[in-house]
């Protein structure tokens, strides 16, 4: 009888500790060539940690990695690349000022074999892009690409280096449904050519649609390995959390203190137009109002001006014309601090770029915007007890899982970072919450938590502007939905009159 060939990737007994904390506890993971394998688990379960071991970025305290049966040395990123391990990280690692081709070649010359010639590289990039259906211009600057475009560059970078084991850490967290479909086509094409793919995602319907096998981690341990076809989304959620989870909906929430239709507008945007640095119109004569006790959902395919609208409202970008009235005050040209003083809270889309200072502690990030205010400072001195008290309160209320308030935010799992952002924004009892993709990268339980928090703000009488490309999220939480297309609002719907089909048409820019 023929012996079965060993799996392409075989990780055994991986153990990783940070101080006294065990992030991976005897983890086994085997993936065959041509297999798409889902790695699941709650925020902080240890998924990214395991993948960093595979990529040679972390040396485990115990365990071994075999590639096609051979035990390989660990702890060298270069060695991992040579073995054909390619990684698309949760946070892209591209240099924004360089071109696609320059980024792809970056670091290659240090192998000492050759200095890459950019023309040859560009040609090879075009070839690879064509083979796997990746839409990429080798000469484009990274800073000018969409997030989906940058992700394709990361995939291409791995392929360029000969990856045969490709790891994608939450690749769809930043994509629209259409873009995610495009990515799945690429991944299926790669698997058909024999690439082993490890796919990390919190979206269980994607896991069901795309993958062949699943491994579930809970608190650093493998709790299940199964064929995807032999399980279902509900079963997976139960394995991840160890309990049943229900996602909250507006119907289940307590009614707001002020009925939305009777409420005064907490936010009025009038005829707002915003141009970007190149003079292109990003927000096109938008008018909308958010009442106290009301959640207004802004739906739309990513890149249709939603982000620019949110940035103008919170004061992060300039307004070309029109007005923004917050709590009765014209804040069109007001600095951010003034808006925060009027009761604005912002949950930004990109927590790494705009929300968190990663080397700083959880405590300092939480108090960041308030450090000069009483009771946190007196006579120019920081009052440590008040600051520590706030940090502990927010961490407890928002279930931030960490070793303590002094752990640096950069070392938290993605979901816990988002809880810090959320806790900071919502713990001040805001009157208007501008939430942009608030559940991005969060697990099922944490998503339910965020949604419950937004509904609680609504019940407390705050207005919420919810910008999301996830239609499910918009539908579950909004009293009213507006749809943006090419910078303009192209339609509006109240909760009572929601039609998903009409919403879809409006999102595609077709009058409905
Ligand atoms: N450098 C570090 N120092 C201290 N703790 C760390 C470090 N890196 C990770 N951890 C901890 O290890 C645990 C696992 O983190 P990891 O990033 O692997 O989680 P994850 O499963 O990828 O979660 P998410 O779904 O939120 O991305 C977390 O509790 C995290 O705080
Ligand atoms: Mg992670």
Measured between the Cα atoms of the first and last residue, the distance is: 64 Å
Outline: globular
| Largest pleated sheet | 6 strands, mixed
At CATH level 3, the topology of the largest domain is Rossmann fold
- CATH homologous superfamily of the largest domain? P-loop containing nucleotide triphosphate hydrolases
Membrane topology: Peripheral membrane protein
Subcellular location: Cell membrane
Protein name: Nucleoside ABC transporter ATP-binding protein
Family: Belongs to the ABC transporter superfamily.
Structure commentary:
Keywords: ATP-binding, Cell membrane, Membrane, Nucleotide-binding, Repeat, Sugar transport, Translocase, Transport. With 512 residues, this protein is of the alpha/beta class. It has two domains: 233 residues, P-loop containing nucleotide triphosphate hydrolases (Rossmann fold, 3-Layer(aba) Sandwich), CATH 3.40.50.300; 258 residues, Rossmann fold. Helix content is 32%, strand content 25%. The chain is built from 17 helices and 22 strands. The strands form five sheets. A six-stranded mixed beta sheet has the order 6-7-8-3-9-10, with helices on both faces. It has a six-stranded mixed beta sheet with strand order 16-19-20-13-21-22, with helices on both faces. Strand 14 and strand 15 form a beta hairpin. Helix 14 runs parallel beside helix 15. Magnesium ion (MG) binds next to helix 1.
């Amino acid at each position: 009888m023929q012996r079965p060939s060993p799996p392409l990737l075989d990780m055994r007994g991986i153990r990783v500790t940070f101080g006294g904390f065990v992030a991976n506890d005897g983890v086994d993971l085997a993936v065959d060539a041509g297999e798409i394998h889902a790695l699941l688990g709650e925020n902080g379960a240890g998924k990214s940690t395991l993948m960093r071991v595979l990529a040679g970025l972390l040396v485990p305290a115990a365990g071994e990695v075999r590639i096609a049966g051979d035990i390989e040395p660990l702890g060298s990123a270069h060695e991992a690349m040579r073995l054909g391990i390619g990684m698309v990280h949760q946070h892209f690692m591209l240099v924004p000022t360089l071109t696609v081709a320059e980024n792809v070649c970056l670091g290659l010359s240090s192998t000492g074999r050759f200095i890459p010639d950019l023309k040859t590289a560009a040609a090879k990039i075009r070839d690879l892009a064509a083979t796997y259906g990746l839409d990429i211009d080798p000469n484009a600057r990274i800073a000018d690409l969409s997030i989906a475009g940058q992700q394709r560059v990361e995939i291409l970078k791995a392929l360029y280096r000969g990856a045969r084991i490709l790891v994608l850490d939450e690749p769809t967290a930043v994509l629209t449904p259409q873009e995610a479909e495009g990515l799945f086509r690429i991944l299926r094409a790669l698997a058909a050519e024999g690439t082993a793919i490890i796919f990390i995602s919190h979206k269980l319907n994607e896991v069901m649609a795309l993958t062949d096998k699943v491994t579930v981690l809970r608190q650093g341990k493998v709790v299940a390995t199964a064929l995807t076809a032999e399980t279902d989304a509900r079963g997976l959620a139960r394995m991840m959390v160890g309990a049943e989870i229900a996602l909250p909906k507006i119907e289940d929430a307590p009614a707001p203190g002020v009925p939305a239709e009777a409420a005064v507008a907490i936010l009025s945007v009038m005829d707002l137009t915003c141009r970007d640095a190149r003079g292109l119109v990003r927000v096109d004569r938008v008018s909308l109002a958010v009442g106290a006790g009301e959640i207004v959902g802004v739906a739309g395919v990513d890149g249709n001006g939603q982000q620019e609208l949110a940035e103008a409202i919170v004061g992060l970008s300039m307004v070309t014309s029109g007005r923004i009235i917050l709590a009765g005050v014209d804040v069109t040209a007001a600095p951010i601090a003034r808006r925060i003083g009027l009761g604005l809270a912002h949950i930004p889309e990109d927590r790494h770029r705009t929300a968190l200072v990663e080397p700083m502690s959880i405590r300092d990030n939480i108090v960041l915007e308030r450090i000069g205010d009483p009771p946190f400072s007196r006579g120019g001195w920081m009052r440590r007890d008040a600051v520590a008290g706030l940090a502990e309160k927010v961490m407890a209320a928002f279930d931030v899982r960490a070793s303590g308030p002094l752990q640096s935010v950069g070392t938290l799992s993605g979901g816990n970072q988002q809880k810090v952002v959320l806790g900071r924004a919502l713990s001040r009892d805001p009157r208007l919450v501008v939430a942009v993709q608030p559940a991005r990268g969060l697990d099922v339980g944490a998503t339910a938590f965020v949604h419950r928090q937004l509904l609680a703000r609504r019940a407390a009488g705050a207005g919420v502007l919810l910008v999301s490309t996830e239609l499910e999220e918009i539908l579950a939480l909004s009293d009213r939905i507006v749809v943006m297309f090419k910078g303009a609002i192209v339609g509006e719907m109240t909760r009572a009159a929601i039609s998903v089909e009409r919403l879809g048409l409006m999102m595609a820019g077709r009058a409905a």
